[in-house]
Design brief:
Keywords: DNA-binding, Phosphoprotein. By secondary structure, the protein is an alpha/beta fold. It is built from 8 helices and 11 strands.
Length: about 220
């Protein structure tokens, strides 16, 4: 899943990138409101973590502009300004959740996971599709009750397909959410990744609709 972390404190930004990256998110960072507004308005993210105290353009204005333009990605607001009035203002502007500073990274990660699941209409951290089971909290995958060892990139691919298991996901969308803008987005790389994951999961789990993309097959191996 692709996450934009908007934070002008380099130390906190680095901590966000490390904590979210460690649990399977593909994290991009920026440090000012003007860049954040542009990225959030032109790129597709599964989640944005947004600090309100930003240079150039404050976070609340950024959020209002996104929502006014119809951008509906989940937004987790961070701020050192923790009064109840500011929390209400942020939520009224379109924030999906609110976390005052200082905070524990474990709590931020839990809230981030929950927001992404809810946005996809998935309430539980444990996702099941036929014989396939994915535990997002522990980053564990099993098929027919047997654990499957997969790489971090393979996990991100499978987790995205699982969250979007009611539809066919286009290769371009997968590349964008797996790699972001720092990748050449070659279809061959995605095909090789899917092939490796299929070998590990076994037949009947990841399907291909030629010309459209990839999906979890009905029953997912069952």
């Amino acid at each position: 899943m692709r996450v934009l972390a908007v934070e002008d404190d380099p130390r906190i930004a680095a901590d966000l990138g490390h904590a979210l990256g460690a649990v399977g998110f593909r994290v991009e960072c920026c440090g000012d409101g003007a860049e954040a507004w542009f990225l959030g308005d032109t790129e597709e993210y599964d989640l944005i973590v947004l600090d309100l105290g930003l240079p150039k353009l404050d976070g609340l204005s950024v959020l209002k502009r996104w929502r006014a333009n119809g951008r509906e990605m989940p937004v987790l607001v961070l701020t050192a300004r923790g009064t109840w009035l500011e929390r209400v203002e942020g939520i009224d502007a379109g924030a999906d959740d609110y976390l005052p500073k200082p905070f524990r990274m474990e709590e931020l990660v839990a809230r981030a996971r929950a927001l992404v699941r809810r946005a996809a209409g998935r309430g539980s951290a444990v996702q099941v599709a036929g014989d396939l089971r994915l535990d997002a909290n522990r980053m564990l995958v099993s098929v027919r009750g047997l654990p499957v060892a997969i790489s971090a990139l393979e996990y991100r691919l499978l987790a995205y397909l699982m969250l979007n298991r009611d539809r066919v996901v286009a290769p371009g969308e997968l590349l964008e959410h797996l790699y972001g803008d720092d990748f050449s987005r070659e279809a061959n790389a995605l095909e090789a990744l899917v092939a490796r994951l299929r070998r590990k999961l076994g037949p009947g789990i990841i399907g291909t609709r030629r010309g459209f993309g990839y999906f979890l097959q009905a029953g997912a191996g069952g």
